[in-house]
Amino acid sequence: MLRGLLVFLISCSVAAAAPAEDAGSVLARAKAASGGDLWNTARSWRGDGTLAAGGLDGEYHAAVDLTTGRSADNYKLGPVDGADGYDGTHAWAKDPGGEVAALDAPEALRRARSQAWLDARAYWFPQRAAATYAAVEARELDGKRYHVVEARPVDGECRDLLALRAVLDDGASRHRETLAPRT
Asked: What are phi and psi of 72, to 5 degrees?
């Protein structure tokens, strides 16, 4: 859950597209707008930070293999701690009581595979994990215009990739976030 929130906050969002563009074109423009070829050499991502909620303070740590989507994260918030991860085959979680459980129900595995697809940036690197894409749609959310690419990773769940239209319209290099998966 924490990793999904982190990915939503720090992932790059799909760049804007004209309605006639296909998903591949939108995704290629998004990659160019958010670092372009620099993504070709990125192999891992690590995040460490602090949390505060309900009067409690804590920290989190996350690590993602950008080439495979394997990941692990953990948190501690006051006296409560937990963790989760995906090793490319198995999803797991550690609850606040310290018990580690395999998340092997079909829906949990679909969620984990979809998150791994996002984590591996497979929408930019289809050789990492295949997906099918629907037509690009225009939508508005919170007063901002987006183009949306619906993606379904193989053996995963549908994910909407939101494309902030202004990213390409006004010079994408000024935007830090260019791809936001919406689950």
From this structure: -155, 140
The one-digit pLDDT tens for each residue of the chain (183 residues) are: 445 433 333 343 333 333 457 888 888 888 888 889 999 999 999 999 999 999 999 999 999 999 999 999 999 999 999 999 999 999 999 999 899 999 999 999 999 999 999 999 999 999 999 999 998 888 888 888 887 889 999 999 999 887 766 654 544 443 334 454 554
pTM of this structure = 0.77
Single-letter code of the amino acid located at 52: A
Compute the residue count for the chain: 183
Nearest to 31 by CA among 169, 170, 168, 182: 168
Domain boundaries, the chain: 2-182
Question: Closest Cα to residue 153, out of 96, 94, 69?
Answer: 69
DSSP one-letter code for 15? E
Tell me how far apart the alpha carbons of residues 17 and 124 are, in angstroms, rounded to a whole number: 15
Q: Tokens 């859950």, residue? A: 1
Instruction: Give φ, ψ of 25 to 5 degrees.
Output: -70, -45
